[in-house]
Amino acid sequence: MISTLHIKNIGIIEDLNIDLNKGLNVLTGETGAGKTLIIDSLQIISGGRFSKDMIRKGATNSYVELCMYVPESIKAEDGNIIVSREITSSGKNMCKINGRMVTVNELREFMKEFIEIHGQNDNQNLLDSKKHLSYLDSYAGEKIFSLKEEYKKYYIEYRNVLKELKENFGDEKEKQRKIDLLQYQINEIEEADLKIGEEESLEEQRKVMANSEKISENLNTANNLIEENGIDNISMAIRALEKIETIDKKYEEASSSLKNIYYELQEIARDISSYKDDTYFDEEERNNVEERVDLIHSLKRKYGNTIEEILQYKDEIKEELEKIENLEEYNIKLKKRRDELEEKLNVLANKMHEIRIISSNKLVTDINKELEDLEMKNAKINIKVDYVEDEFFREGKDIVKFYIITNVGENEKELSKIASGGEMSRIMLAIKKVLAEFDNIPVLVFDEIDTGISGKAANSVASKLKTISKKHQVLCISHLPNIAAIADYNYFISKKIIADRTRTQIKLLEETEVIEEIARISSGEINEVTLKYARELRNKKAS
Asked: Which residues partner with 394 through β-bridges?
């Protein structure tokens, strides 16, 4: 239930806190005091649309916050759920659920589980055929619940089997297409005959080819300098040292070191000479290297960033190809299981269909009886349960829709196409009265559900609201004394001019004030006659 509603800067509401209670909460008050703005605020906090024109004059934002106590909810550890929505004049939305930022759509989906608003233009659930199915199944109760649970179990497995068949190429054309693709990729990689480290070697070779002229020129220069001057000069230096090496040991060591350098230089000269031979490349060699590098780059774009990754990819698709080629036997088992599940689902769907047909007839009778009590004697609800042969839905194979005839002699039409706002509210009230035992929505809001009714119908509306409020928290804006008299809690909405600005105020009435308010809305005056009438109505509530 909603424990507290806080509204700020919406229309003539500047800052309003409303503490609500269990049972039937009735809001009455003078015209234009802001009763509808309270319902609008509940729509806003439920993820409804918001117009910037609703922001109070002079304010830059509007704010709605409510605290709900739902002890059985898994969405709140202590049972308390705090929801808020702030909207700025620039159109920015900030929605929070227990302090966590959410989108407007997330807020709307979340609040659908807790609040239903029924007014002149707010009976979307009644117009939603998906809700029609849930209404009917709620009425059918335990008889269909166990079947739905079993059906759901098989349905989930059935969807998984269909998904796996698709992924396993149960379709022969898709399977062959995939086999051809994998075989092409494997052949392309294998024909390339890639070697690990090959790319680095080719890149070095490519670099040498690109600089072959420069390399050859400088190798020749180095070779000439070594052979023409270096080796001969060192040879003469060695001979000179040999002549004095017996005089002192250090000359001998110098001579020995120089001989080592001489031998190393000869080795370097031979290497440089061989390098010169490696710098010649004919055009065919150059083309072969370029083509090989291009091939490797092409394969890298398709299959991996390195040769190692390409070869690993080849191994993976080989395994995939082998799996696909050996899937036939597994797919046969899957198809057999699919057929078994379809048979089970059909049996369960047929049983649910039979229950829904029987339940729909009983529900139609009960709702139409409630409509008679609400002075809609010519209105007749009909529920159609259409069985779809070639498709499985999450809840069975049925499409459920509510239809109505509002006047004698007319054709029945879908609710969304004929019922006025007032009629829709009373139809919803009739449905909610019948389903009060089964409906899990904790908070129901009725906005001026009494529009255009009086007398016996008014008493019937009051009685039904009271019945519903035993299982739900009910908020109702009303102009009828019958409804105000039967309330568990009465709130008076008024407006007051403070500092040249109109402001909405709300007060939870004490018993004497409740009697006076019933008297006021019964005739517009408070006197002994109207007070006596109000007490009589109130006494009926007590009895």
From this structure: none
Q: Which of 394, 430, 402, 357 is nearest to 127 (CA)?
A: 402
What is the topology classification, in CATH, of domain 123-170+334-439?
Glutathione S-transferase Yfyf (Class Pi); Chain A, domain 2 (1.20.1050)
Distance (Å, whole) CA 37 – CA 55: 11
Amino acid at 235: S
CATH architecture of 1-114+441-543: 3-Layer(aba) Sandwich (3.40)
* Amino acid identity at 377: K
Q: Give the contacts of 42 (CB within 8 A, at least 6 positions apart).
A: 5, 66, 115, 117, 445, 475
Rg (CA), the chain: 44
Task: Indicate the burial class of 116 (C-beta count within 10 angstroms; 0-12, 13-18, 19 or more).
Answer: buried
Per-position DSSP letters for 28-55, written without gaps between them? EE-TTSSHHHHHHHHHHHTT----GGGB
**Residue 49 falls in which region: left (phi positive, over 0), alpha (psi -120 to 50) or beta:** beta
Tell me the per-residue pLDDT of 32-49, one tens digit each, with 9 for 90 and over: 888 889 988 999 999 888
Reported pTM: 0.62
d(CA 195, CA 188): 14
- Phi first, then psi: what are they for 329, rounded to 5°? -65, -40
What single string gives the DSSP state of each residue in 374-429?
TT-TT-EEEEEEEEPTT--BTTBSEEEEEEEE-STTPPPEEHHHH--HHHHHHHHH
Per residue in 307-365, pLDDT (tens digit) is 899 999 999 999 888 878 777 778 888 899 999 999 999 999 999 999 999 999 999 99
